[in-house]
């Protein structure tokens, strides 16, 4: 669904393979999605579902070897950024596409002050003079809610708490006013009360700055609170994509359904027994010629063994699912 | 479920902790003189009744894991009394503790780090048997197979090494090892935090099944409030080394009394967009103070939305404000103090029966 608005980021048929001694690992298989201006796309999946690898490969952050982008097209600003050279890519990173990583302690350099690290992209990409960069850096820290911003520019990362460090990371990602912000599990390492602070901050910043955000997480609660659209990944593939309300109200893929049932809530009714998704997450050794969820799926049938389902539209506009169960052809076969 | 909620009148707690303190010294200067202490656990008291699960929640650094380890005497505690199954273990030497170890065990957070990579699965699960029994090889192997069946591991895996297993399976190995000596009491320290969402439910269900089958008592430490709501009978909330509230599960989640509990519960995101956008969040300002230098008065006074002048001066006492509900807050200053000879066993019972449909 396009709404007539051109997407800022358009990913088509992306395939990423890792070459290891034990053979190839198919980490990302034919992933396609788009990101529209100003929207927040939530990406949900377990570890190994390919959500981080997809986003890292977009901006060339995967070390190659072992990673190899087999095919695909990533349109951003009118060109395919999988084909641009390293220098051009370095210009895009930070300037046009911001990135927030999961663990702020390991992604901040401990031997430089926070001010230096925020000023680095400003001086490099925007060509600001030191004094102008310092003023802008203080503004940014202020924007993300760090009190006494100007003085704290001189502090080192270890002098900040976990939540504060994550705010610094957000300030760095926002430094050059990027069009797209990719946030990889930005609140997973934080406590719930600090997570609530950061989520409020992001909601607030979206209104002020209006950039498009890709938010990677495994926490369905976080997604429900902030996303406009959700993409569910499993075994390196997109299994379902929908507007947030449609996904939670009418999940179509058996994995999405099971995932929603397996998570307990702090509010509402308490289920006496937790629903379980049996089995283990898939190993991505072989090329996926069948549905990756078939071993754990209670709806699996013969066709799931033979053919990897393609995504097809269902229900509400913008809702699609990659599943053979309740597909029109299968239903006909079952009833006819 | 209802059966596990009911504590028969007059039941003695299996675990009784009173005034537990665990301070870690800070040394500085050339002579490494002791210049202060990190008060990781500061005057904590609670009971755990047989066959129940006490959930312990709080944010990182609040002292919940230290409490769990101190209760099992993995540390030499600074002060306090710990009675497990009628035996006072608070002051015992590590040597004297050895014969009490079989009845209290632990399941650790990181199943990768707590399993020896050079031992086979049978070696890991059988090690407690080597240490504490004089069984024959045959007897031990039978017991190992029995344990593997109990936690849902295939017997053919007995000679494999930990790296061959996934996170969820490793956690099962850790649980099997904890069960080897037939313990009465198990401390589960964030047993599901390192696992994927779809695997968490498998492990939690396993813990529940084992509890029912073997009559286990758990101290379930977690930062995941929704999972604690699922598994715990009663819940203790910790903040900066102190227990701020203890209550039966339903009462705590329906009507939290301490302002910190209220903020903590409201901060948990709900997997439902409709209700999620209606929830009124209490957003706490700032961060948790350092446990080396806690604020004067109530520990929560620096972030509390309902702070009063008295909170900055006087430390609140833990009081029983309703049957089975203990709170340490100046907003709730009417009630009986905790720490009598058998505190609140009967009241707890009546309230829990009232709460059970």
Q: Could you describe the 3D structure shown?
A:
The complex is a heterodimer of chains A (336) and B (357). With 336 residues, chain A is of the alpha/beta class. In chain A, 35% of the residues lie in helices and 22% in strands. The longest helix of chain A has 18 residues, at 192-209. The model of chain A has no long low-confidence stretch (mean pLDDT 86). By secondary structure, chain B is an alpha/beta fold. Chain B has a nine-stranded mixed sheet with strand order 6-7-8-3-9-10-12-11-13, with helices on both faces. In chain B, strands 2-1-4-5 form a four-stranded antiparallel sheet. The N and C termini of chain B lie close together (11 Å). Chains A and B meet through helix 7, helix 8, helix 9, helix 10 and helix 11 of A and helix 7, helix 8, helix 10 and helix 11 of B.
Biggest protein-protein contact in the assembly? A-B, 49 and 45 residues
* Total count of helical runs of at least 4 residues of chain B: 12
> Largest beta sheet of chain A: what is the strand line-up?
6-7-8-3-9-10-12-11
Question: Which H/E pattern describes the elements of chain A?
Answer: EEEHEEHEHHHHHEHEHEEHHHEEH
Helix content, binned percent of chain A: 25-40%
Overall strand count of chain A: 12
Radius of gyration of chain B: 21 Å
Please mark out the parts of chain A with pLDDT under 50 across 5 or more consecutive residues, or reply none. Answer: none
- What is the general shape of chain A? globular
Please estimate the helix content of chain B: 25-40%
Poorly predicted regions of chain B: 1-6, 340-357
> What sequence of helices (H) and strands (E) makes up the elements of chain B?
HEEEHEEHEHHHEHEHEEHHHEEEH
Structural class label of chain A: alpha/beta
Please tally the β strands of chain B and state the result. 13
Strand order of the largest sheet of chain B: 6-7-8-3-9-10-12-11-13
Q: What gap, in angstroms, lies between the N and C termini of chain A?
A: 32 Å
Given helix and strand content, the structural type of chain B is alpha/beta
């Amino acid at each position: 669904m396009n709404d007539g608005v051109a997407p800022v980021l358009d990913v088509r048929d992306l395939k990423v393979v890792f070459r290891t001694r034990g053979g190839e690992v198919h980490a990302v298989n034919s992933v396609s999605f788009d990101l529209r201006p100003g929207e927040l796309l939530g990406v949900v999946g377990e570890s190994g579902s390919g959500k981080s690898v997809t986003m890292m490969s977009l901006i060339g952050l995967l070390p190659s070897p072992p990673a190899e982008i087999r095919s695909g097209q990533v349109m951003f600003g009118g060109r395919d950024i999988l084909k641009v050279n390293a220098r051009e890519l370095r210009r895009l990173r930070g300037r046009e596409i911001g990135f927030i990583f999961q663990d702020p302690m390991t992604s901040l350099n401990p031997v430089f002050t926070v001010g230096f690290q925020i000023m680095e992209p400003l001086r490099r990409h925007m060509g600001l003079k030191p004094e102008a960069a310092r003023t802008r850096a203080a503004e940014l820290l202020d924007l993300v809610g760090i009190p006494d911003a100007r003085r704290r520019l001189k502090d080192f990362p270890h002098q900040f708490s976990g939540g504060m460090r994550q705010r610094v990371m957000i300030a760095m990602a926002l430094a050059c006013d990027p069009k797209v912000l990719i946030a990889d599990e930005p609140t997973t390492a934080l406590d719930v009360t600090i997570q609530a602070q950061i989520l409020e901050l992001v909601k607030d910043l979206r209104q002020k700055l209006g950039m498009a955000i890709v938010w990677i997480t495994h926490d369905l609660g976080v997604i429900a609170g902030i996303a406009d659209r959700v993409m569910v990944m499993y075994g390196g593939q997109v299994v379902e994509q929908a507007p947030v309300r449609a996904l939670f109200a009418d999940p179509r893929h058996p994995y999405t359904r099971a995932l929603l049932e397996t998570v307990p809530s702090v509010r509402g009714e308490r289920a006496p027994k937790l629903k379980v998704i049996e089995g283990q997450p898939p190993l991505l050794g072989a090329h996926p010629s069948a549905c990756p969820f078939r071993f754990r799926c209670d709806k699996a049938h013969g066709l799931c063994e033979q053919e990897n389902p393609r995504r097809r539209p269902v229900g509400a506009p913008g809702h699609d699912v990659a599943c053979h169960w309740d597909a029109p052809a299968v239903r006909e076969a079952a009833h006819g | 479920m209802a059966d596990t909620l009911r504590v028969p009148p007059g039941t003695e707690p299996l675990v009784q902790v009173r005034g537990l303190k665990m301070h870690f010294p800070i040394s500085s200067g050339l002579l490494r003189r002791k210049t202060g202490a990190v008060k990781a656990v500061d005057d904590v008291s609670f009971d755990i009744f047989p066959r129940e699960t006490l959930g312990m929640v709080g944010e990182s650094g609040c002292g919940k894991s230290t409490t769990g380890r101190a209760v099992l005497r993995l540390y030499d505690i600074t002060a306090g009394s710990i009675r497990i199954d009628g035996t006072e273990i608070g002051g015992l030497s590590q040597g004297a503790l050895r014969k009490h170890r079989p009845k209290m065990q632990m399941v650790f957070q990181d199943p990768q780090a707590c399993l020896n990579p050079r031992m086979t699965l049978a070696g890991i699960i059988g090690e407690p048997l080597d240490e504490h029994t004089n069984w024959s090889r045959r007897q031990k192997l039978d017991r190992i197979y029995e344990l593997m069946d109990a936690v849902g591991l295939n017997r053919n895996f007995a000679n494999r090494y930990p790296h061959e297993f996934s996170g969820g399976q490793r956690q099962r190995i850790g649980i099997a090892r904890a069960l080897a000596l037939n313990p009465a009491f198990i401390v589960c320290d964030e047993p599901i935090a390192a696992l994927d969402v779809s695997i968490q439910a498998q492990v939690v269900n396993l813990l529940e099944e084992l509890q029912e089958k073997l009559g286990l008592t758990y101290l379930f430490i977690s930062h995941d409030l929704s999972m604690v709501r699922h598994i715990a009978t009663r819940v203790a909330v910790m903040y900066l080394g102190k227990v701020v509230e203890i209550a039966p599960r339903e009462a705590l989640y329906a009507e939290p009394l301490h302002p910190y509990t209220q903020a903590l519960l409201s901060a948990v995101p709900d997997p439902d967009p409709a209700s999620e956008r209606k929830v009124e969040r209490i957003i706490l300002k700032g961060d948790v103070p350092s446990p080396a230098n806690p604020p004067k008065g109530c520990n929560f006074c620096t972030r509390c939305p309902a702070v009063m002048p008295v909170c900055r001066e006087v430390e609140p006492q833990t009081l029983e404000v309703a049957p089975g509900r203990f709170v340490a807050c100046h907003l709730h200053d009417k009630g009986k103090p905790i720490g009598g000879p058998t505190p609140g066993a009967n009241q707890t019972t009546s309230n829990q029966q009232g709460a059970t449909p």
